[in-house]
Amino acid sequence: MKPYSNKVVIIEPAEIISAGLKSVLEEEGSYNVIKIYNSFSHFKNVWREENEVDIIILNPKSLRYDELENIKNLVPYRDTIIVAIISGVYNENSLRFFDLKMSIDAPSESLIKELDNLTKNRTDSAKTDEHNELSVREKEILVEVAKGLTNKEIADTLNISVHTVITHRKNISKKTGINSISGLTVYAIINKLVDISKL
Amino acid sequence: MKPYSNKVVIIEPAEIISAGLKSVLEEEGSYNVIKIYNSFSHFKNVWREENEVDIIILNPKSLRYDELENIKNLVPYRDTIIVAIISGVYNENSLRFFDLKMSIDAPSESLIKELDNLTKNRTDSAKTDEHNELSVREKEILVEVAKGLTNKEIADTLNISVHTVITHRKNISKKTGINSISGLTVYAIINKLVDISKL
DNA sequence: ATAAGAATACCAATAATTGGGTATTGATAT
DNA sequence: ATATCAATACCCAATTATTGGTATTCTTAT
User: Fold this and answer.
1) Is domain A136-198 annotated with CATH 3.40.50.300?
2) CA nearest A60: which of A29, A88, A20, A32?
3) Is the pTM of this model over 0.85?
C-alpha cells in the first residue's frame, strides 16, 4: 500500500452515513477525509478554495439528472475518483459516469478494496482521460454520428478510412465518457455542435 | 402502363422549373399535375381541401430541416409518394425520407421511369408504412433507446425478452421511418418523450 | 365471431459497433 | 531535437444492432 494518504471529500446529507464512511475510511490508514458537505451545491460553492482532492464520495440523490451525466466535468480535478454511495435502488444507467458505485449495505472491506484498486490505477488512467476538449476533427466526426450516419458512411463522407473513424470515435468516447450513440447525440446538441431543429 | 392518371402536386418556387416539370410529366400521359404551389407553407394551408394526391414533387429548399425529417408526417396522405427535386448540391442524408431524389439536370426519361417504378409498387408499400402513431409500449422502448440503453439493458429494465425489444424497435423504425439511434433520440426529444435537459 | 392491433417471443443471417491494441506522419511547443 | 498531439490507418475479438421472417395471446371494434 502507498504511504500516501488519499484526500477524500464526502457529499452526503445523512450525517450518520457520512460519519460512518469517515470512520471506515480512516480506520484503514491510507484515506483521509478532509471535508464533509451535506449537499452538492454547498460543495460546488467552495471547491475552488479546496486543495486537490483524490476521491469524492457522493450521494447521487443530491444531484439532478443532468448533473449526473456531467459529473466528470462538474468536479474540479479531472483525475479525481468519483464514487456514488447508494442507499436503496437506483437506475444503473444513470450512474454510468461514476468510477465506482457502492451500496451502503456492502461490507466496508469490499469498499476499501475497490477504492484501493482505483487509486492504484489512477496514475495510468489520469494520462488517458486528461484532455477533455475534442479536436476539430473529432467534432466533425461527432456531428456525423449525431446525424445518424454509420461509421462506414462517415468514412465515405469525410474520405477517410473506417478505421480512422473508429479511432476518432474511441477518442471521443474516452474524452467525453459517453459510449452510446444517443448520449453522443445529446452531447452534440447540448454543446451546439448540431442544431436539433436542423437535425 | 396504368390507364389511371396519377395526381401530382408540385411545390417549387421557381416557375420555370415547375412549368418544365408539368410539361414533362403530362407529356407522358399517366401523370396529371393538378396543382402548383410556390411554397410548402402555402401548400400546407390548403391541403385539407385537396383531393387525394398520389405524388408530391417538392423542392427541399422550401423546407426547414425538421420538416425534412418529418416529411412523411407533414403530408396529408400516407401513401403519397414524395419526390425531392434538387437543383445544385444537397446533403444526401437530409433527404433520406424522400421516396425519390431527382436532380433537375437528370434526363426527363429517367425521372418518368423512376416515378413509374414507384407508382407500380405503391399499393404494396402502402400496407407497410400505414400506421404512424406509436403505441404506449413502443414509446416506452423509444425512451430507453434515447437514454442510451442497449436492447439487452432495455429488456432487463422492462422485464421482457430482448426479442421483444427488437420487435418493438423494428415496429418503431417502420412507423417513424427512422433507423438510426441518433435519429430516434432526436425524434424522442422533439416529440417530448424525453427531456433533453434531463437526459 | 371474426378481423385487426398490440404486446409478447423466437430464429437466423448480416452489418455495425466496441474495446483492446499498434503505428506513421506532420505540426507544435519546450 | 525531442517530446507531445492530432490525424491517419490497421488488426482482432467480442458484442450489439439490424432486418427478414413466424407465431401466440389478449383486447377491441365491426
Assistant:
1) no
2) A88
3) no
